Structure formats: structure tokens, C-alpha cells
């Protein structure tokens, strides 16, 4: 991750240096004289608008942009579960409903639901527990009209904890489903 | 005399050692009460080799928990397998058994190692073997000698020549490693930035099946160790996990969620011939074949809590096997089919339990509290497991009677987990 970031940073810095070189002409035109004909009619200065290019996210026209908008509920992707529980709690219903609506309206969107478990006990049984959690969200999405071929429910068991301390606060953060869209996994 | 040695001579065919090797360090933390005192004299001429053969043999035998290697005074002249043995003298040194040997250089650049084992109590010559080897094969040769000694003196096969597989997690990097049973000579079979779990050895020790998360979900692979070729055995929609080899190597039992939930299926190692075996609304996972191939033991929470069940290996009505406690998982059957090792939650601690399948007695054989993934040595004597010590993942080995323990940790740091003890090497 760090290495990747560094590589990108290096590329940006390098591009900047190159750009700076390119815009330093050998001979500059004398500034502020064009368009002035002393004693004649002034020529209209043509506007030179700058077209902004933003490559920091998806093109703003894409319906997927809302998935990254921190003010949109769709940017929220995690559903948390109680200890030894596998039902989607009432508080997460609006979140799952919003994603169901998005998936219904965007048939090209695909979702990977990754279920997780806390670290206690057998790794393989925890894969089973994570699966039970991802199946729960998948089933809810199904009931809300999302097509089966738009979703895959899998389990990461205890292998990808969001929190690595050994205590109930942390375990609660690890009993969770993450909803990822195509392009994010 | 020499012809007898020559007739037993064979060449070890092992892959050349790679240049850089990782290492697990071993710490013995308990001992059996009665250990056979054995004298392993330095082999004459062994200084020519990169490692001391007699030293490795001594360490192997001690690590079994059944032997105590005697400290010996400098012997002059250095005895060899051809020396006349003064039984009374060795008896006065309190040795029950004695190993003598020698190393000679050959014209082709290789070496010859000969040894002979003596039962000092019975005043009996238990013979030996001669090996030719390259400089890279010193450890492998020493393990073979230890296996010979162990088998002659205990009547059961030694496991010093076997290998273990385990996963090391260092930062964000996961490595599936293979090492000698003593943790030495580790080699990395697979490196990944995503988790690797549940390695299991094929019955011939040439392949591993395991679960890798490199595709952001669990997928079962079969990996050939010699050439590094990998084959996807199960990559269905959903999770693919918990592989187990049938004793004839023709079938893998796996847990799949392709039809919802986690259910047990069988599949050929090449991914063909999928069959569903369980039909429950529960989590059915961690299948393991009995050594005779007739049964599949597995973990299921169909009764409300995770417990161990078994069913005929072709499918059929499951019977519950564990009854004590509310969390019993990770079933492993001993090589003789008589014992079931598993992980039990006992007063909040996860420990290794051993169930005698005949008289149904249960014994907890570890005193650690976060044990996982027990794995029987192929002779059934020891159980390798993963546990946590001082916040760090380590491997531990405990004798099946719970008396003798040893610990293996990564010398270069990181968490070690998911051990699997490989089969006997033919």
C-alpha cells in the first residue's frame, strides 16, 4: 500500500517537473501589446477559459460517484452484528435498502458482500460464521428485489479484522459485513 | 562385514537446498518421566561435513520426548561403527543404547556415512545403514539415522524425516512454508499479500491443498510442491474452504457456500465431479476422513452449538461424536483411527482435547488458551498445534499423552499458524 502510494507520488512529482519544463518557452512574446492599435479600434480579447480536469475520482457523470460521496448513505458499506447473532439489525435496514435501490437502478453494478467473524475459535468455523452474516445481507437484498447475478456473498472468516486488539470493543468491529462494488475488489 | 554395509547402501534423492533458508527455533518445555538414556558418540570424521550428524541425531531423539542423550567425555580413540563395543563400560556410563558412526569422503566429492546401533542392556548389535550423500543432505541423512534408531528401540516408525507445513504472517505478507519436522530448512511454497489457511498434505506428501484469499474470497487450491504448479480445486460462487484429502488421494472433501450456508461437498482435486454430502441449515465444515476412508468427521452447529459429527464418507445420516462442552471444533483422527483430537472451549480457553473413540474418555492435553489446528504426527505420538504466546502466534507440539511439550517459533519474527504435519516419506 505504502509502496504503491509512493510510486504514484513519484509519478505525480515527475509529471509536475516535466510540465514545468514544457511551459518554460525559450522566447517569450512581449506581454500586453497585442490587440492594441494606438489610435485605432481595440480588438476584443478572446477569452481563454481553462477546462478543469479532475482525475481524483470517477467522472462526475457516472452513477457510481454517489458510492464515494461521504454525504450519501451509499458511501457507508458496513453492517455490524451482535455476538453470535446473524440477523441484520433494524438500524442497518435503511442502509441495506439504499444499496438495494442502487443495485436495482444500476443493473451493471455488482456487489461482493464479505462477511467477517471475530478471532475467537476455529478459523474454518469462523469462515462459516462470516458466511452466515454475508448470506443475511444477501437475503435481505434479494427480498428487496436485487437480482441474484448482481451479488456474491463470501466470507473472510477471522482473516481480515478491521481491528486487531483482543477485546470485546474490537471483536464487535470485526463481526461485520462489508459491501464492495465492482472495481473496488 | 563391509559387504553387509554396502548391500544396505542407497542414495538419497532430495532436491538441492536453496541458498536462503528460514528457520523455526525449538524450545522444549516439558518431558516424559522415563526417557531412555542413549549415547550418540560423535561420528569419526564428521568435522568434514557442514553440520554435525551425531548432533542432529541426538537432538532428534531428545525432541521425541522418549530419549535422553548422555553427555560423553572425549573418547580416544574416536570409536566407529566398526569398533568393538565394551558393553560393560557403556553400561557404567548409564547408557541403555549406543550409536557409533563414521564419515568418509568419496572420490566423486560425496560422502559416505555409516552407523551402528547397539542395545547395551541386552548386549545386542542392532545393525545400521550406510548412506552416500552430498553436502546438502547432511540433515536429511541424520534424520534417517534417527528414524532407524527410534524404530529399532521403540518398535514404531520415527517421524524425523517427515516435513511440516505452516503459514507465517509477517506484517501484511503471508507465506506458506515447508520445513523439516524439527523446523529447520524452511522453504516458502507460496507468498501472498492475502491470507492463506488450512493447508493439508496429500497422502503421498507431494501436494498441498489449502485455502487462499488472493481473489478476495476463499478459494481451494491444490499445489504441487516440486514444480510449484497450482490448480484451482474449488472456486464456486461464494466461499470455498476447509479441504481434506481422502486416504486414496482421489477426492477432496470441502465446505462450500455455493448453495447458501456452508455445506460439505466432495470434489476431485482437479475440480471435477462435485457432489453435495450434507443438507442442513447449519454450518457444516472442517471435514476430515478417517484413516480407513470410511467416515467423514466434521464440525456442525446443527444442534445449536458447534460440535463434531461423523457420517459415512459417501454421505449419510450424521451421528454426533462430542457431547461435553459447548464448543468442539477442528476434528482430526489419529493415524490408527482410535483417537479424535479436536479444539474444545474449556472455561473460556481454547485447548486441545483427545477423545478415545472406543471408551469415550476425554482428556484435555494442553494448558495454553488459544489453541488451533491440531495435527497428528504420522506415527500418532505427537500433536502439532498453533497457539498464542505473549501475543505472538507460535507452533507447539504435545505428546498424545499430554506429558511432553515443545514450542516452535519463527526465528525471524512474525506469527506462525495453521500447522499440518506431513505423511511418512517413502
Sum this structure up briefly:
Chain A has 185 residues and is an alpha+beta fold. Chain A is 34% helix and 12% strand.
What's the architecture of the domain at 78-181 in chain A, going by CATH? 2-Layer Sandwich
Q: What proportion of the residues of chain B is helical, as a percent range? A: under 10%
Number of strands of chain B: 32
The CATH homologous superfamily of the largest domain in chain B is termed TolB, C-terminal domain
Broad structural category of chain B: mainly beta
CATH topology of the domain at 78-181 in chain A: 60s Ribosomal Protein L30, Chain: A
Q: Any idea of the CATH topology of the largest domain in chain B? A: Neuraminidase
Q: How many strands, which pairing sense, and closed or not: the largest β-sheet of chain B?
A: 7 strands, mixed
Gross morphology of chain A: elongated
Over all CA atoms, what is the radius of gyration of chain B?
23 Å
User: Which spans of chain B of ≥5 residues are poorly predicted at pLDDT below 50?
Assistant: 1-21
Distance between the termini of chain A: 14 Å
Over all CA atoms, what is the radius of gyration of chain A?
26 Å
Determine the number of helices of chain A (DSSP H or I, runs of at least 4 residues).
4
Enumerate how many helices of chain B there are, as a single number: 4
Spatial shape of chain B: globular
Low-confidence runs of chain A: 8-37
The main sheet of chain A orders its strands as 1-4-2-3
Please tell me the overall pLDDT of chain A. Answer: 81
Structural class of chain A: alpha+beta
Observed structural traits:
heterodimer, A: 185 residues, alpha+beta, 60s Ribosomal Protein L30, Chain: A, 4-stranded mixed β-sheet, 4 helices, 4 strands, 34% helix, elongated, B: 426 residues, mainly beta, Rossmann fold, Neuraminidase, 2 domains, 7-stranded mixed β-sheet, 5-stranded antiparallel β-sheet, 32 strands, disordered N terminus
Structure characterization notes:
The complex is a heterodimer of chains A (185) and B (426). Chain A has a domain at 78-181: 2-Layer Sandwich (60s Ribosomal Protein L30, Chain: A). Helix content of chain A is 34%, strand content 12%. Chain A has a four-stranded mixed beta sheet. Chain A has helices spanning 2-22, 93-105, 123-143, 168-174, and strands spanning 78-80, 111-116, 151-157, 176-181. In chain A, strand 2 (111-116), helix 3 (123-143) and strand 3 (151-157) form a beta-alpha-beta unit. By secondary structure, chain A is α+β, with helices and mostly antiparallel strands. Chain B is mainly beta and 426 residues long. Chain B has two domains: 2-154, TolB, N-terminal domain (Rossmann fold); 163-421, Neuraminidase (6 Propeller). Helices cover 10% and strands 42% of the residues of chain B. Chain B has four helices and 32 strands. Chain B has helices at residues 2-8, 53-63, 87-92, 138-154; strands spanning 10-11, 24-28, 36-40, 67-69, 97-105, 111-119, 124-125, 130-133, 163-170, 173-180, 187-192, 196-201, 207-212, 219-224, 230-234, 240-245, 252-256, 263-267, 275-276, 284-289, 295-300, 307-312, 319-320, 328-333, 339-346, 349-356, 362-364, 372-376, 382-389, 392-399, 405-410, 415-421. In chain B, the strands form seven sheets. In chain B, strands 1, 3, 4, 5, 6, 7 and 8 form a seven-stranded mixed beta sheet that branches. In chain B, strands 2-31-30-29-28 form a five-stranded antiparallel beta sheet, with no helix packed on it. The longest helix of chain B is centred in the middle third of the chain and has 17 residues, at 138-154. The radius of gyration of chain B is 23 Å and the shape is globular. Chain B starts with a helix and ends in a 5-residue tail after the last strand. Chain A binds chain B through residues 1, 112, 114, 120-125, 127-132, 135, 152-157, 159-160, 180, 185, and chain B through 172, 195, 197-198, 211, 213, 216-218, 237-239, 241-242, 255, 257, 260-262, 283-286, 299, 301, 306, 327, 329-330, 343, 345, 350, 372-373, 418.
Amino acid at each position: 500500500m505504502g509502496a504503491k502510494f509512493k510510486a504514484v507520488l513519484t509519478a505525480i512529482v515527475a509529471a509536475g517537473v516535466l510540465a514545468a519544463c514544457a511551459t518554460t518557452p525559450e522566447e517569450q512574446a512581449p506581454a500586453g501589446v497585442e490587440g492594441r492599435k494606438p489610435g485605432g479600434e481595440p480588438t476584443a480579447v478572446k477569452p481563454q477559459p481553462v477546462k478543469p480536469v479532475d482525475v481524483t475520482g470517477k467522472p462526475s457523470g457516472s452513477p457510481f460517484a454517489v458510492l464515494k460521496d461521504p454525504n450519501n448513505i451509499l458511501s457507508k458499506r458496513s453492517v455490524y452484528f451482535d455476538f453470535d447473532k446473524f440477523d441484520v439489525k433494524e438500524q442497518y435496514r435503511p442502509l441495506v435498502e439504499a444499496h438495494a435501490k442502487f443495485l436495482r437502478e444500476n443493473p451493471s453494478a455488482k456487489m461482493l458482500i464479505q462477511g467477517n467473524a471475530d478471532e475467537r475459535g476455529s478459523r474454518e468455523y469462523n469462515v462459516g460464521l462470516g458466511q452466515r452474516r454475508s448470506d443475511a445481507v444477501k437475503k435481505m437484498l434479494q427480498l428487496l428485489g436485487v437480482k441474484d447475478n448482481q451479488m456474491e456473498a463470501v466470507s473472510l472468516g477471522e482473516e481480515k479484522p478491521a481491528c486487531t486488539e483482543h477485546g470485546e470493543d474490537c471483536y464487535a468491529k470485526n463481526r461485520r459485513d462489508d459491501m464492495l462494488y465492482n472495481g473496488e475488489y | 562385514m563391509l559387504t553387509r554395509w554396502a548391500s544396505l547402501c542407497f542414495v538419497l534423492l532430495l532436491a538441492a537446498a536453496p541458498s536462503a533458508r528460514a528457520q523455526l527455533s525449538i524450545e522444549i518445555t516439558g518431558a516424559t518421566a522415563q526417557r531412555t538414556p542413549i549415547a550418540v558418540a560423535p561420528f569419526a570424521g564428521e568435522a568434514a561435513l557442514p553440520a554435525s550428524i551425531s548432533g542432529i541425531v541426538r537432538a532428534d531423539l531428545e525432541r521425541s520426548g522418549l530419549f535422553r542423550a548422555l553427555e560423553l567425555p572425549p573418547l580416544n580413540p574416536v570409536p566407529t561403527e566398526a569398533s568393538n563395543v565394551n558393553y560393560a563400560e557403556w553400561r557404567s556410563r548409564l547408557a541403555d543404547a549406543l550409536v557409533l558412526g563414521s564419515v568418509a569422503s568419496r572420490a566423486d566429492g560425496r560422502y559416505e556415512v555409516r552407523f551402528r546401533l547397539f542395545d547395551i542392556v541386552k548386549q545386542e548389535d542392532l545393525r545400521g545403514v550406510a548412506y552416500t550423500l552430498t553436502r546438502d543432505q547432511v540433515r536429511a541423512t541424520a534424520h534417517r539415522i534417527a528414524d532407524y534408531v527410534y524404530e529399532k528401540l521403540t518398535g514404531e516408525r520415527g517421524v524425523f524425516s517427515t516435513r511440516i507445513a505452516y503459514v507465517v504472517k509477517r506484517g501484511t505478507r503471508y507465506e506458506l512454508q515447508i520445513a523439516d519436522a524439527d523446523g529447520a530448512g524452511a522453504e516458502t511454497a507460496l507468498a501472498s499479500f492475502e491470507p492463506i489457511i488450512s493447508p493439508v498434505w496429500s497422502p503421498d506428501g507431494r501436494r498441498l491443498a489449502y485455502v487462499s484469499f488472493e481473489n478476495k474470497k476463499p478459494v481451494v487450491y491444490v499445489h504441487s510442491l516440486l514444480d510449484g504448479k497450482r490448480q484451482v480445486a474449488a472456486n464456486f460462487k461464494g466461499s470455498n474452504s476447509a479441504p481434506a484429502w481422502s486416504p486414496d488421494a482421489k477426492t477432496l472433501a470441502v465446505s462450500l457456500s455455493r448453495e447458501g450456508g456452508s455445506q460439505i461437498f466432495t470434489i476431485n482435486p482437479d475440480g471435477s465431479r462435485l457432489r453435495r454430502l450434507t443438507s442442513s441449515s447449519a454450518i457444516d465444515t472442517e471435514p476430515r476422513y478417517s484413516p480407513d476412508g470410511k467416515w467423514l468427521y466434521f464440525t456442525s452447529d446443527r444442534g445449536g452449538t458447534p460440535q463434531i459429527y461423523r457420517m459415512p464418507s459417501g454421505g449419510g445420516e450424521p451421528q454426533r461424536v462430542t457431547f461435553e462442552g459447548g464448543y468442539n471444533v477442528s476434528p482430526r483422527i489419529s493415524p490408527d483411527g482410535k483417537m479424535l483430537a479436536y479444539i474444545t472451549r474449556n472455561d473460556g480457553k481454547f485447548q486441545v482435547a483427545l477423545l478415545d473413540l472406543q471408551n469415550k474418555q476425554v482428556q484435555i492435553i494442553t494448558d495454553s488458551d488459544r489453541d488451533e489446528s491440531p495435527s497428528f504426527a504420522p506415527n500418532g505420538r505427537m500433536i502439532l498445534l498453533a497457539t498464542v504466546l505473549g501475543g505472538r502466534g507460535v507452533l507447539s507440539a504435545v505428546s498424545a499423552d499430554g506429558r511432553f511439550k515443545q514450542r516452535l517459533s519463527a526465528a525471524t519474527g512474525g506469527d506462525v499458524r495453521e500447522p499440518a504435519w506431513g505423511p511418512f516419506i517413502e
